[in-house]
Amino acid sequence: MSDKFGSLDANEKAAVESTLYRCRALVGRIGEELRKKKPDHFVDERSLADLHASLERAAWIRHLQRRACRRGAVSVTANWGRIFV
Predict the structure, then answer these.
(1) What ranges in the chain are assigned the alpha helix state H?
(2) How far is CA 76 from the centre of its chain?
(3) Is there a contact between 84 and 65 (Cβ–Cβ < 8 Å)?
(4) 32 and 68 belong to one structural domain
(5) Are residues 80 and 57 in the same domain?
């Protein structure tokens, strides 16, 4: 990169430096805006819904396992969305 930069004439170097300066300023403004935002702005609602569904499913399977244990069944396993008792 430095070799390529060294071979540029003064106008091209100034243009590259100016572009880098504007990019740094833009990065700074973006960083300021992100620091102002609350953490809940970064939550992916779809992922959160998937997590919730998975937890509900796990709770249901656990409920069935406990119920099966009370009835004397050996085990309950989940396989491809089906529950076997």
Answers:
(1) 2-6, 10-36, 45-71
(2) 33
(3) no
(4) no
(5) yes
| pTM strictly above 0.85 | no
Report angle CA 72, 77, 78 to the nearest 5 degrees: 140
Cα 23 to Cα 75: distance, rounded to the nearest angstrom? 61
User: Are residues 50 and 67 both part of a single domain?
Assistant: yes
Q: How far is residue 26's CA from residue 22's CA, in Å, rounded to a whole number?
A: 6
What's the rounded Cα separation, in Å, for the pair 47 and 55?
12
**Interatomic CA distance for residues 85 and 74, integer angstroms:** 8
- Give residue-wise pLDDT tens across range 39-67: 766 677 888 888 889 989 888 888 888 78
- Domain extent at residue 22: 1-42
Residues 10 and 31: their CA atoms lie apart, in Å, by 31
